[in-house]
Amino acid sequence: MTIKGEQAGSELSRALDVKQIGEFLDAMLGTRLSAEAGDFARRAQEEIRAGVDPKRMGLLFALSSRHARDRVLLDPSESELARAAELLPGWNPERWGLLETLRVSLWMTREDLGQPSCAEAVEALFGHADEGECRALYRVLPLLPDPLRFQWRMQEGCRTNIVPVFEAVACDNPYPAAYFEDVAWRQMAIKALFLDSPLWRVHGLDGRLDEDLARMALDLVEERTSAGRPIQPDLWLCLGPYEQERALPLIDHEINHGTSEGRCAGILALGRALQEGRLEAFIRAQDPLLSPWAEAAQAGDCSQAAFGRLPGRETSKQ
Q1: DSSP 103-144
Q2: Taking burial as the number of CB atoms within 10 A of a residue's CB, which of 24, 69, 123, 233 is the most buried?
Q3: Burial letters for 108-137: b for 16+ Cβ neighbours within 10 Å, e otherwise?
């Protein structure tokens, strides 16, 4: 696997219909914004359609915070999530905030979305954006025409240690899997582990596993084990069927000595490593914690989505 961008990225770009995406965002906001906030959004959109310079665009971004609260979740319905995935495969606004959704909606009103002036405005706003504004900008870039032009900027977003900004790029977002080069992709995955971000929410992770990522993850396992530190359950996502001679003893150790969450993750890792015999042994043992997970893994239910159902994760949207 080399550069992902050209082929998968062109397919993602062809799926974009910016007009429909903008209408979809407006429809979601229409049922959630107050009357006053809705009036602000309509006035701002009219102004943006007529053309605004980057300074004014930045001011409208800032003014949005008076009309939508930063930490209030958008909380889309199942049908809205399905519509988002239909408009752009892999797009999942489940954990978007209301304020950043408003800001993305304003940006999608621009008439120059496919032009250099739009990209120039993006960079101008990044120059002085606060955390919330950065999140909104990173949310909007995958929705724009010719997304590959923003590859450097999106990869730059993975360099931050500000977790919400990092997750705006890395999680629930089709862009990295489609456009990141292999080195940037692996670095993003490992960075997610260091930041304790939910790796299972990195769209397309299962499709971009390789030996190098497995080796990097195993290095991290050994480093944490030597330091007496716990292993993040999501780390086992990085292995797949690779590096088994080195990986299997470490997985066994986690199953025997880890937390409940980590032990179940280890069982899923065995499924991802195609270890049918080991799974069968756990099924026969009738362990109340591990046997159901072994049965699921043996049946093929060990994708990254399964890690989102580990003990303690079932109801979390954070």
Answers
A1: HHHHHTT-TTTTSHHHHHHHHHHHTT--HHHHHHHHHHGGGS
A2: 233
A3: bbbeebeeeebbebbeebbeebeebbbbbb
- State how far the Cα of 84 lies from the Cα of 119, in Å rounded to an integer: 23
Cα separation, 291 vs 284, whole angstroms: 8
Residue type, 89: P
In the chain, where are the structural domains located? 5-182, 209-307
**293 contacts 265 by C-beta, under 8 angstroms:** no
Give 171-237 as a DSSP string. SS-SHHHHH-BHHHHHHHHHHHHHTT--GGGSTTGGGG--HHHHHHHHHHHHHHHHTTPPPPGGGGG
Q: How far apart are CA 295 and CA 272, in angstroms?
A: 13
Of 296, 242, 231, 310, the C-alpha closest to 273 is 242
Per-residue pLDDT, 314: 60
Closest CA to 272 of 246, 249, 245, 306: 306
Whole-angstrom distance, CA of residue 229 vs CA of residue 123: 40
Residues 170-214: pLDDT tens digits?
999 999 999 999 999 999 999 999 999 999 999 999 999 999 999
Of 103, 95, 91, nearest to 29 by C-alpha is: 103
CB 86 within 8 A of CB 309: no
Please list the residues that pair with 97 across neighbouring strands: 73
